[in-house]
Design a protein that fits this description.
There is one protein chain. This protein is an alpha/beta fold. 27% of the residues lie in helices and 22% in strands. It has ten helices and 15 strands. The chain has helices at residues 43-51, 119-122, 126-137, 169-180, 195-201, 213-224, 242-247, 263-267, 287-303, 321-329, and strands at residues 4-10, 17-23, 31-40, 65-73, 85-89, 102-106, 110-112, 161-164, 186-190, 205-208, 231-234, 253-256, 273-275, 311-313, 337-340. Strands 3, 4, 5, 6, 7, 14 and 15 form a seven-stranded mixed beta sheet that branches. The longest helix is centred in the C-terminal third of the chain and has 17 residues, at 287-303. The model has no long low-confidence stretch (mean pLDDT 97). It binds NADP nicotinamide-adenine-dinucleotide phosphate. NADP nicotinamide-adenine-dinucleotide phosphate is lined by residues 42-44, 127-128, 131, 164-165, 167-170, 189-191, 194, 209, 235-236, 238, 257, 259, 277-279, 328, 333-335.
């Protein structure tokens, strides 16, 4: 293996994307060195480039979703071997960003990929799944019992689950987790073109996201037939919280993808809880739920209980990422995860 590799750099805050070379990193204790066969794009990278959030050290290698092959093991790694196919949680620190040909991953947030799943599909899993799972099942967020453990499986039979943003990557994983939890009905908003696919994941009803709030509320009320809605998940920005809060029963929880819940958001939901999430399965606060999730991923994917997002491959390896992020910024990506193959970078 060469000591140098290709990586995609964000040159400076609000800067451009440029492919350059950098050293292949060496795994430390508990880490894997992974040859990245596929990496997925997220709204996170759009936010970092356009809004200048989260990253201060430039040039920066971003990307938090990857799948590939284990090339080397750091000290103390017992559960993986060189040659294993893995999906990994990356992070926006240069050695661990996934927009490069080789990256480091923490073994505790890596999972072996079963044979029924391709690298491209596996790359769609880490951030979307962790965000949905932590928002709904981590004690720091909504805190429901996780359905990948016996105590949570089927636990909410007969209770409704309402999701605004069913076709987002996070939403697609949330629908599947809600199904494993036994929720019924599972009501999601999306563009009508995504309805047939969301039904295959477990949504019982898909409502047109373009409907006026009053029409959506009345349809949701009819579908839940008077059973209190104790959990609503919001994966998209709505003009206000009025609709999701009106759907919720008193004392219910509005789980959101927002990393920070400020006083204004709390005040918009009197008598109800608003929960946020930080979608990493490996922070001090999230690691108990996060590591338990990662241990379950191979089984959930192999059994088909969890399906990865549908993927769209972008050409030109790492060079294709800039155009993909632009499409996402313009809202031109619907119900699929954009994926590139860094080894195809010329
Ligand atoms: N806090 C965290 O750690 C964390 C982690 C991950 C993601 N996030 C955030 O979570 C959100 C979702 O991320 P993602 O990667 O899952 O998104 P994504 O896959 O890029 O979402 C694209 C989808 O959004 C849907 N959408 C847009 N506006 C909508 C609306 N008003 N109602 C219903 N659906 C709407 C579209 O659905 P249709 O095609 O059906 O129209 C589209 O398919 C983003 O804001 C992201 O920044 C936060």
């Amino acid at each position: 293996m060469s000591a140098q590799q290709k990586a995609l750099f964000l040159t400076k805050k609000h800067g451009d994307w440029e492919v350059g070379t950098t050293e292949v990193p060496t795994p430390g204790p508990g880490q894997l060195l992974v040859k990245v066969e596929a990496t997925a794009l997220n709204p996170l990278e759009v936010g970092i480039q356009v809004r200048g959030i989260l990253v201060e050290d430039y040039p920066a290698i971003l990307g938090v979703d990857a799948a590939g092959t284990v090339e080397a093991l750091g000290e103390g790694v017992a559960d993986f071997a060189v040659g294993d196919r893995v999906l990994i949680e990356g992070s926006f620190i240069n050695g661990k960003g996934t927009f490069q040909q080789y990256t480091l991953a923490e073994a505790v947030v890596s999972a072996k990929i079963p044979n029924n799943i391709t690298f491209d599909q596996a790359a769609s899993v880490p951030l979307g799944l962790a965000t949905a799972a932590l928002a709904l099942f981590d004690q720091g967020s909504a805190g429901l019992p996780p359905p990948w453990e016996e105590s949570g499986k089927g636990r909410f039979a007969g209770k409704p689950f309402v999701l605004f943003g069913g076709a987002t990557s996070v939403g697609q994983y949330a629908i599947q987790l809600a199904k494993l939890s036994g929720f019924s009905p599972i009501i999601a908003t999306a563009s009508p073109s995504n309805a047939p696919y969301l039904h295959t994941l477990g949504a019982t009803h898909v409502l047109d996201r373009a409907l006026a709030p009053d029409a959506l509320l009345s349809q949701i009320t009819q579908l839940t037939s008077g059973v209190p809605v104790e959990i609503v998940f919001l994966t998209v920005q709505l003009p206000s919280l009025e609709l999701p809060v009106s759907v919720l029963a008193p004392g219910g929880t509005l789980a959101t993808v927002w990393p920070v819940i400020d006083d204004a958001k709390r005040a918009a939901a009197p008598g109800k809880k608003v929960a946020g999430v930080y979608g990493s399965a490996n922070t001090k606060a999230t690691r108990e739920t996060g590591h338990s999730l990662y241990r379950s991923i191979p089984r959930l994917l192999a059994s088909g209980e969890l399906k990865p997002n549908r993927v769209e491959n972008l050409a030109d390896g790492l060079k294709g990422i800039a155009a993909g992020l632009k499409k996402m910024e313009k809202g031109e990506v619907s119900g699929v995860k954009l994926v590139v193959r860094p080894q195809e970078t010329l």
